[in-house]
Design a protein that fits this description.
With 286 residues, the chain is α/β, with parallel strands linked by helices. The protein has helices spanning 14-26, 34-37, 44-54, 70-81, 99-105, 116-137, 166-178, 195-205, 215-218, 221-232, 249-255, 269-277; strands at residues 5-8, 31-32, 57-62, 85-90, 110-112, 157-160, 183-184, 208-213, 237-241, 259-262. The strands form 2 sheets. A 5-stranded parallel beta sheet has the order 2-1-3-4-5, with helices on both faces. A 5-stranded parallel beta sheet has the order 7-6-8-9-10, sandwiched between helices.
C-alpha cells in the first residue's frame, strides 16, 4: 500500500500520531509512521527519504517539543524541497515555532486536533490536495525535480519564489538547467544553517535574480525581503508572473521598472520559454 501521507512527529507524541493516523486512514488516506511502518533492520535515512518522496503530503503532528527535534526539521525541509504539501496537526492549541521551522511552515495551515471542526477541516484539505494531485498526474509523467542548486564562483541565477508555488517553479528551474544555465534555489540550504544569512550570501553572489510573482509571493515577507535586497545590491532582476497578481502599492513602486513576463498568459509553453531565455542580462549565467 502506497502511503499518501507522511507523519512527522516527536517520539514523545507517538500516541498523538497514532490518533491522527487513525482518523486519516479511516477516511481512506494511508499514512507512513516510522515507529509503526519501518521494517526491522532497514536503513533509517533511506527509508525516511523514500517515504517522504512517495507521499503527497507531510503532516507535522505538533506537540509541545516538536520543533526542538533536528530530525523533524530535516523531514520538513526534505518534503518542502520535494514540493510536498505541508500541514500541521496540533495536539495542543496554536503552534508556535521559530527558525527554519517557521521558514518552511509559515504559511502551512494548522488544524486543532482536539476539536471536531479542526479534524473536519484537516480531512477536507487532505481530500482537496489528493484530488488536485490525481488531476495533475492523470495521463502525464512528472516533469521531475531540478538538479541540485549551483554552488560555484561563476555568475548564477538566484530563484526567488514562494514554496507554495514550488510545483510550478520547479518545472521552470529544470528547463533553465537543461538549457545550460547555472541556477541556485533554496533547496540548497542545510536545515541546520541560518536561513537569512544563507539567502543573503547567495543573493549577494548571484549574477541575476528571477522572482516568480504570485499571490503567495506577495504575502510572504521572506520573498519581499529577497527582491528588495537584490534591488539594494543593484542586481539584474526579472519578474515572472505565474498568475494574475495585484501588487501592494509599495512593492509596485519598487518593481515597476523591471523586466516582466506574464507566464500564465502564454498558451504555448515554448513561446514563454523563448521569451524567458531571451531576457536581457540572463546569458551571463549560462
Amino acid at each position: 500500500m502506497k502511503h499518501k501521507i507522511f507523519l512527522s512527529y516527536s517520539n514523545k507524541d507517538v500516541k498523538g500520531a497514532e490518533y491522527v493516523a487513525g482518523i486519516l486512514e479511516e477516511h481512506g488516506f494511508p499514512c507512513f509512521m516510522a515507529s509503526r511502518d519501518m521494517e526491522h533492520g532497514a536503513n533509517w535515512g533511506d527509508t525516511i527519504q523514500k517515504a517522504i518522496q512517495d507521499a503527497q503530503i507531510l503532516i507535522v503532528v505538533a506537540g509541545e517539543h516538536t520543533f526542538d527535534s533536528h530530525q523533524i526539521i530535516r523531514e520538513i525541509a526534505t518534503a518542502s524541497q520535494d514540493g510536498k504539501s505541508l500541514l500541521i496537526a496540533s495536539l495542543a492549541g496554536p503552534v508556535s515555532m521559530g527558525g527554519n521551522a517557521r521558514y518552511y511552515l509559515a504559511y502551512s495551515p494548522q488544524y486543532d486536533m482536539t476539536s471536531e471542526e479542526g479534524v473536519r477541516d484537516m480531512l477536507a484539505k487532505v481530500a482537496e490536495i489528493d484530488q488536485e494531485f490525481s488531476a495533475q498526474n492523470k495521463g502525464s509523467a512528472s516533469a521531475g525535480k531540478p538538479d541540485k542548486p549551483y554552488e560555484g564562483k561563476e555568475p548564477y541565477i538566484f530563484i526567488s519564489y514562494s514554496h507554495k508555488d514550488m510545483s510550478k517553479v520547479f518545472r521552470i528551474i529544470r528547463r533553465l538547467q537543461d538549457e545550460g544555465y547555472r541556477v541556485w534555489y533554496d533547496e540548497g540550504i542545510d536545515p541546520a544553517t541560518e536561513w537569512d544569512e544563507n539567502i543573503a550570501q547567495h543573493i549577494a553572489g548571484c549574477g541575476y535574480l528571477i522572482a516568480f510573482i504570485s499571490n503567495n509571493y506577495v504575502a510572504s515577507n521572506n520573498c519581499k525581503d529577497e527582491v528588495n535586497f537584490a534591488r539594494d545590491l543593484d542586481k539584474d532582476r526579472l519578474l515572472v508572473y505565474i498568475e494574475a497578481t495585484s501588487l501592494p502599492l509599495g512593492m509596485s513602486m519598487r518593481l515597476r521598472r523591471l523586466q516582466a513576463i506574464h507566464e500564465y498568459k502564454y498558451e504555448d509553453r515554448e513561446d514563454f520559454y523563448s521569451k524567458l531565455l531571451s531576457a536581457s542580462g540572463i546569458d551571463k549565467c549560462k
